[in-house]
Structure formats: structure tokens, C-alpha cells
Amino acid sequence: MRHAPPSRLLASIQGARVWTDVVGAGTTRIRIASRWARMLGFDVSAYLVGDLLVDTGFAHVRTQVLELLEGRRIAAVCCTHNHEDHTGNCGPIGDRHGCPVYLRHHRLRWTEGVRRLKPYRTWWWGSPGDYPAEEMPEAVGDGERTLRALPAPGHSITHVALWEEETATVFTGDLFIAPGASAVMVQENPYDLADSLRRVAAVEPRWMLTGHGMVVADPVPRLLAKAVKIEEAAALAVELHRAGMADRAIVREVFPGNHRRDRMIEALTQGEFSRLNFVRAARTHLRDA
């Protein structure tokens, strides 16, 4: 399968940059940024765990990522989930290194708006292109290091956290982006997200490495606190809806502050990412007591 790299001119316009640092236990963080990502405070991270690659970054930095990995052995690509900022280079990396690309629920990878990206997603990240994903096994190893997949839906149906028991490190993708309840994408399920946070906390990681660059020591309290905050916010949203309050008013009650920025992002993403989505999801995905 042929994958044409984005032009260096486009990468220059985007202010694309790729660099690495070591984050302990022989794990290398690949930090990937663009001008737009930096404006949002939203750099992307992939990780080299021995010869295993966790996520691949976005397509606008494809040339730089491929050059960075040149000459390295990649035994497998393990995707935390199939969103274009994390799987944008799966196809060319799999082709060049002759390795499998693993993704949970791989047959659903073109759902959740990925088949036809909204303009802002194409501009910020680029199209991931097709790639021959295989179903994520329970564990993936390179002969020395092993990652175990923990189902972690909520943000995406394809989402997993990848757990390395030997180093007590968990790679959480977009499971944990910020503390507390927050704006979400239209497909997100806050109740599944809270369950996933608790599932990851249950393995008692000592380190959490996220898909957007956070390195968190002793993350269990933060994982559990976020689960509680999400459930509390969802419960309040449902209670206010049942009392007859309109959705926009509920947003102001559940999420005090920064409403102008939230509405700006909602408009920019054509409604795909907003606090309003959280309020509606709390009602849509409400489970029977």
C-alpha cells in the first residue's frame, strides 16, 4: 500500500516539529506538535516501549516521524484508539517496518467521524489514510517487553489503555486529557469513560503516560477523582433536564466559567466538541438504576 508523505511545505506552514525525550524505564516519548496544536496546548505524544510503538502521531508530521524511526526495529504498532491525531502514520510505519498494526474493534475504525473528517480535523491533523489494522490481542510483546490491553471505551469505542506490569506504567491515550468533567466529542459516553478510568486505576499504575504528553506519577487518585467528577456532572445534568431546564442553561450550571471559549470551540468544530455534548450524552447514555 502506497502512502505519499505530506509535503515539506505543508509541514512548514503547519509549524510541524518532532522531538524525543526519555521518560523512564527505557521508554522514549515522541513529542509531536504543530502551530495549531501548540495554540490549543495540545501537542501529541507517541511512545517507544522497547521495540513496540504506542500510537503514531498525525499525518502532517509524517515525514519527520518516518525519519525519526528510520533504522529502528518496530515489532508492532499498538494504537490506543483510532483518531487521526494518534493513528495518522500507521499505514506507512507498518509498511516500512513490516510490522502489524493493532487496534481494538478494528472493523469500526472508520466510525466516529474518521471516515469523513470535519474541516478542522483535516487542517489540524491531516487524514490518517487507510491501514490494514489487526484486532488488538490481550497482550503484545517484542521478546523483552509486554503491553497488556485494558479496554477503555468512553472517548472512543476503539480505545484501550496499554499496561506494562513490569514497570507499572500505563499508556492512556485520550482516556485522561484533563482533570474533572469537560467538553467531549459527540460520540463520547461519560459513563463508559468513568468505568474505564476505574478499570485502569484498579491495576494500580505508578506512572501514567498520556496521548497528549502528560507524565503523571502515582496517578490512581487522579484517575478516580476524574471518574467521580464525571459521574457527578452527569447526574446533575440529568437532574436539571428532568426539572425542565434547557440544555444551554444546564451547561452553565454544570460548567461554570469559560463559556465564551467553549462556544468558540463549539463553532470551530461544527458542534463536534463541546460541553453541550457532555450534557446531551449524560441523558442519551443514562443507564437504568
Task: State the name of the first-level CATH class.
Answer: Alpha Beta
Shape: globular
Low-confidence stretches: none
Number of strands: 15
Largest sheet: 7 strands, mixed
The sequence of SSEs as H and E is HEEHEEHEHHEHEEEEEEHEEHHHEH
Please name the CATH topology: Metallo-beta-lactamase, Chain A
**Strands of the biggest beta sheet: in what spatial order?**
1-2-3-4-5-6-7
In terms of DSSP E residues, the strand content is 15-25%
Number of helices: 11
| Nearest-integer average pLDDT | 92
CATH architecture: 4-Layer Sandwich
CA gyration radius, whole angstroms: 19 Å
Return the domain count. Answer: 1
Q: What structural class should be given to the helix and strand makeup?
A: alpha/beta
Q: Percent range for helical residues?
A: 25-40%
Gap from first CA to last CA: 49 Å
Explain what this protein looks like in three dimensions.
Helix 8 runs antiparallel to helix 9 and helix 9 packs across helix 11. By secondary structure, the chain is an alpha/beta fold. The mean pLDDT is 92. A seven-stranded mixed sheet has the order 1-2-3-4-5-6-7. It has a six-stranded mixed sheet with strand order 8-9-10-11-13-14. The chain is 35% helix and 21% strand. Strand 10 and strand 11 form a beta hairpin. It has a single domain, classed as Ribonuclease Z/Hydroxyacylglutathione hydrolase-like (Metallo-beta-lactamase, Chain A, 4-Layer Sandwich). The termini are far apart. The protein has eleven helices and 15 strands. The longest helix is centred in the C-terminal third of the chain and has 23 residues.
